[in-house]
Amino acid sequence: MEANIRTFKDFLQLYNLLSHTCFKRCIDNLNTRNLDDNEIKCVEDCAEKFIRLNHRFMAIYVEHQQVLVNRRMKEAEAAAAAAAVDSTNDASSTNALETSESEHLPQSSVAVG
């Protein structure tokens, strides 16, 4: 649900940027209520250019995002493998320490029980 809200917010930001940019670039005369033919053509061209540019950016982003995801997965796998090796080494050194300590302990000659 939160991802949908974030996507909608991103869309609204993009729409607002498009509206603001094309309005500033194309609308010259605020004395009339209707747009003249030149303003309509300018707004259409501006919006089309903006949308094409956004599609290009998104394609590049998706391409690079996949590379980043793959790199992070490899790093996570390497870190997990290193952690597994470390835990194995820790267990081996603990067992070796316990073995060497028990060899140096004096044996009791008193029987219990």
From TrEMBL:
GO biological process, one term: protein transport
Cellular localisation: Mitochondrion inner membrane
Region called Disordered, residue ranges: 83-113
Pfam families, alphabetized: zf-Tim10_DDP
Membrane topology summary: Peripheral membrane protein
UniProt keyword Ribonucleoprotein, yes or no: no
GO MF annotations, alphabetized: metal ion binding
Protein name, per record: Mitochondrial import inner membrane translocase subunit
Organism name: Photinus pyralis (Common eastern firefly)
